[in-house]
Amino acid sequence: MFRFKQFTIQQDRTAMKVCSDACVLGAWADVAGNRLLDIGTGTGLLALMAAQRNPTAQIDAVELDEVAAGQALENVGASPFASQVRVWNTPIQTYLNAEAGNVPEPVYDCILTNPPFYTNSLRSPDKAVNRALHTDDLPFADLLVVVRRLLRLSGTWWVLLPPPESDRLCQLAAKGEQALRPFRQLYLRHHAQKPIFRHLTAFRFADAPSDLTPQQLAIHELDGRTYTAEFQALLQPYYLIF
């Protein structure tokens, strides 16, 4: 269980637990707009963080794994944001298509994604962990098709990935007629002397700014225990300890 200031995440039945990098994405992303989509919601964390910051938005949280979707539904139902967030247990590749009977018009102002990213790494004996961490069920090519189909032309897409996978996604996203290009980035470190371990990237259907310079954020001071002032300021609306 992980308690935040306005909601609680139960996570005993999900493969992916609450982690600092996902919380940074939820706090850093601009979640403005009327309709938001959380792809691969897991416990419902990002959807609930977005609901807290945007109380007028309607948020769809899509999760392939049935057990995880059930726990997300319980977390949403126990929160003050139950009327804002809908949980869907379905592959994102067919989400809305089956409901509408055809390819819908782009409907989302903002899409949040903490996608699986491992390709050829060692597998866990736990199938749910494999599904959460490996790209078998959601390769980047499929993810891009979905985002291009559902994101409004004026919308933004916010993604969390390790640096090599982030670079590969940026290259793939820039190809084709519906090119998506970065306009904001945040590089995340455990502390200032540790290497960057996550890229948080915001995409849109527009040319990348010529002066795009990624921000950098360290979670901890050099002692590895004390949270940095920047991390505390970002997560203060959520973490009970700040």
UniProtKB/TrEMBL annotation:
Query: Which locations, inside or outside the cell, does it occupy?
Result: Cytoplasm
List the keywords (alphabetical): Cytoplasm, Methyltransferase, S-adenosyl-L-methionine, Transferase, tRNA processing
Which EC class, in a word?
Answer: transferase
* Key word RNA-binding present: no
Please list the reactions this protein catalyses. adenosine(37) in tRNA1(Val) + S-adenosyl-L-methionine = N(6)-methyladenosine(37) in tRNA1(Val) + S-adenosyl-L-homocysteine + H(+)
Gene3D superfamilies reported in the protein's UniProt record: Vaccinia Virus protein VP39
Indicate yes or no for the key word Calcium: no
Read off the CDD domains from this record. AdoMet_MTases
Q: Which residues form the Methyltransferase small domain?
A: 32-121
User: What biological process terms from GO does the record include?
Assistant: methylation
Any one GO MF term held by the record is:
methyltransferase activity
E.C. code: 2.1.1.223
What the record says about family reads: Belongs to the methyltransferase superfamily. tRNA (adenine-N(6)-)-methyltransferase family.
Q: Which HAMAP family match?
A: tRNA_methyltr_YfiC
Q: What does this protein do?
A: Specifically methylates the adenine in position 37 of tRNA(1)(Val) (anticodon cmo5UAC).
Q: Which PANTHER family match?
A: TRNA1(VAL) (ADENINE(37)-N6)-METHYLTRANSFERASE
Q: What is this protein called?
A: tRNA1(Val) (adenine(37)-N6)-methyltransferase
List the source organism.
Fibrivirga algicola
